[in-house]
Design goal:
single chain; 262 residues; alpha/beta; 7-stranded mixed β-sheet; two-stranded parallel sheet; globular; dolichyl-phosphate beta-D-mannosyltransferase activity
């Protein structure tokens, strides 16, 4: 694997620009609270992009109302329909890169990821020099609250399986609470990311690892949603497990070369 030097922030005065990406579909019960809580966190120049897939419950209308109150910090990217978690994040990554953001976070809208942990991810990147910081449920034991035991076991052993197949040392390979330095997203060929659902999170970590970027896992406590309905299913896990083998085999035929952006 190759190691890369981090580029400097693209904005003036070496002040970082930071943005949290939250994909939404029918999150009207959580959306206002998550927006306000995220933007209260003690991170400089922190903005928020909501990527909404035409939620029929009116999630986007709440975001638009709040934009009148938070016009500089709150942004909305509307898509015509539900197209998958991976495509939502890729659309958000591209938007953030074109706007010159340096650190790009991803998290869920339902408070399963605690917004107060954003600062931990940010410090892992800015102080410990991680290129990718992962909010890890399994770095220090099993830190999951309110999940049925069957789901805990399925998630935990999914990560064991991914580590076995890929060789990555990441404890929480399926985590969706992360912070990227922009150089990672500029290097990974986002249009060639194959998976759109649950396996997207695995593929992004695998690509980051294969390019030799520095990855740090930060222990967090994951709390299952209290409002709204989960989009997770056993079928999604099954698709991811087969996808990992395909991803590993495909990697034998790909060159992970340095990108001119880095």
């Amino acid at each position: 694997m190759m190691l890369y030097l981090r580029i400097k922030p693209l904005n003036n005065n070496n002040v970082t620009k930071n943005i949290v990406l939250i994909p939404t579909y029918n999150e009207i019960e959580n959306i206002e609270a998550i927006i306000r809580t995220v933007l209260e966190q003690p991170i400089e120049n922190l903005h928020l992009l909501i990527i909404d897939d035409n939620s029929p419950d009116g999630t986007a209308s709440i975001v638009k109302k709040l934009q009148n109150e938070l016009p500089q910090q709150l942004h909305l990217l509307e898509r015509p329909g539900k197209q998958g978690l991976g495509t939502a994040y890729i659309a958000g990554f591209k938007w953030a890169l074109t706007k010159g953001y340096d650190y790009i976070f991803e998290m869920d809208a339902d408070f399963s990821h605690n917004p107060e942990d954003l600062i931990k991810l940010y410090q892992a990147c800015t102080i410990e020099h991680a290129d990718l910081a992962i909010g890890s449920r399994y770095k220090s034991g099993v830190n999951v609250v309110n999940w049925p035991i069957g789901r805990v076991l399925m998630s935990y052993f999914a990560s064991v399986y991914v580590r076995l197949i890929t060789g990555m040392k990441i404890m929480d390979t399926t985590a969706g609470f992360k912070c990227y330095h922009r150089s990672v997203l500029e290097t990974i060929e986002l249009d060639k990311i194959k998976f759109k659902g649950y396996a997207f999170q695995i593929e992004m970590k695998f690509s980051t690892w294969k390019y030799g970027f520095q990855i740090i896992e930060v222990p967090i406590v994951f709390t299952d949603r209290r409002k709204g309905s989960s989009k997770m299913s056993g079928g999604i896990f099954g698709e991811a497990m087969m996808g990992v083998i395909q991803m590993k085999v495909s990697s034998f035929f790909k060159k992970y070369n340095k990108n001119s952006h880095v």
